[in-house]
Specification:
about 300 residues; alpha/beta; Rossmann fold; Histone, subunit A; six-stranded parallel β-sheet; 14 helices; about 55% helix; about 10% strand; globular
C-alpha cells in the first residue's frame, strides 16, 4: 500500500467534500471510499446525508450501508475494509478516493492501530460487577498499582478506558503500556491529503443550519420512528448516537419539543465540526482548500492532478 496512488479528501460536516469528490470522479479514474462513521449504517440515510441514488449512479461509493444500526463497526474494521478496497481499486487501474469527516477512521488508516488483545466478555463482566459493587475509584487504584504508566495517562473518571486497561492486565498478565510499546503500527500516507472547509466559520455554521433543516424537511423524524419500530430501544443503538439522530430520537421520545430539538441538533453539529477542524489543523501536511471560494473545485482538481500525474 505504500507506493499506491490515493487521494484523501477530509473536512468537517457540511464543508462541501462530496461536490469536490463528484467533480474528481467525472474528470479522472477515481473510485470513492466513504470515510464516514454514519454512512456505514443501513437505514440511516437522511440524518447521515447519505448520497442520493442519482449521485450514487454517477459515482458509486464503497463502505456505505455496511451494517445495520444495531451493530457496532470499529476503526479496525474500517481499516481492514478500506485497505482491501484500495488494493482492489488499484488492481483495476483506478485511484482510490477516500472522502469523509471521521477522523478516527482516517487515523486508523494512516497511522495504524496498536495491536491489543481482543475483548473477553467474561473478564469484562467481572470488572463491571466490581465497578457496581466498589465504584470506579477502587478500580482506578488497582490500575495505578498494576499499570502506573497507563493510570497516569488516563483520567480517573474515564470508565471505559480504565476497564479496558484492567481487562488487558487480567487477560495477559502484562500492563497495557507494555503492549503499546511493543506494537508497531504501519504508517501510510496518501499521494494527496486535502482538507476542505470554508475559510469563514460563519459560512460553515450557516451551511450546517440549512442542512439540518433540510434533513427535517426530507423526513428525518419519520426515519427515526422507523428505526425505533424496527430495533426497539434506540438508546442502545450505535447508529443513533450520531449527531442529529440523537436529538431527533429525544424529540420522538417526548424528551424535548420541536424547537429544542432543532437548537440542540444544530449546536451539536457545530460542535462536531469544531472538533473535526481542530484535528485537521493539527496536521501540517494537509493541503487546504477554501470551499467558499468560487473556483475551489477547479483549483483542487488542478492540485490533485499535478500531484498524481505530473510529479
Amino acid at each position: 500500500m505504500d507506493e499506491q496512488r490515493a487521494v484523501c479528501i477530509m473536512g468537517p460536516t457540511g464543508a462541501g467534500k462530496t461536490d469536490l469528490a463528484l467533480a474528481l470522479c467525472e474528470c479522472g479514474p477515481f473510485e470513492i471510499i466513504s470515510v464516514d462513521s454514519g454512512m456505514i449504517y443501513r437505514g440511516l440515510t437522511i440524518g447521515t446525508a447519505k448520497p442520493s441514488p442519482s449521485v450514487l449512479a454517477r459515482a458509486p461509493h464503497h463502505l456505505i450501508d455496511v451494517v445495520d444500526a444495531d451493530r457496532s463497526y470499529s476503526a479496525a474494521a474500517f481499516r481492514a475494509d478500506a485497505q482491501a478496497l484500495m488494493a482492489d481499486i488499484a488492481g483495476r487501474g483506478r485511484i482510490p478516493l477516500l472522502v469523509g469527516g471521521t477522523g478516527l477512521y482516517f487515523r486508523a488508516l494512516m497511522d495504524g492501530l496498536d495491536v491489543l488483545p481482543a475483548a473477553d466478555v467474561t473478564v469484562r463482566q467481572g470488572l463491571e460487577s466490581e465497578l457496581a459493587a466498589n465504584g470506579l475509584g477502587a478500580l482506578y487504584q488497582r490500575l495505578r498499582e498494576g499499570d502506573p504508566a497507563t493510570a497516569r495517562r488516563l483520567h480517573q473518571n474515564d470508565t471505559q478506558r480504565i476497564l479496558r486497561a484492567l481487562e488487558i492486565l487480567q487477560i495477559t498478565g502484562r500492563p497495557m503500556s507494555e503492549h503499546l510499546s511493543d506494537s508497531r503500527p504501519q504508517v501510510w500516507r496518501p499521494t494527496v491529503a486535502m482538507a476542505v472547509a470554508p475559510s469563514d466559520r460563519a459560512v460553515l455554521h450557516e451551511r450546517i443550519s440549512r442542512r439540518y433543516h433540510a434533513m427535517l424537511d426530507r423526513g428525518l423524524i419519520n426515519e427515526v420512528r422507523w428505526i425505533r419500530e424496527r430495533f426497539g430501544d434506540v438508546k442502545t443503538l450505535p447508529g443513533l448516537k450520531l449527531v442529529g439522530y440523537r436529538n431527533a430520537a429525544e424529540y420522538v421520545a417526548g424528551a424535548c419539543d420541536w424547537n429544542e430539538m432543532i437548537a440542540r441538533g444544530i449546536a451539536a453539529t457545530r460542535q462536531l465540526a469544531r472538533r473535526q477542524l481542530t484535528w485537521l489543523r493539527a496536521d501540517e501536511t494537509l493541503t487546504w482548500v477554501d470551499s467558499s471560494a468560487a473556483n475551489h473545485v477547479e483549483m483542487a482538481i488542478k492540485r490533485i492532478s499535478s500531484a498524481l500525474f505530473c510529479d
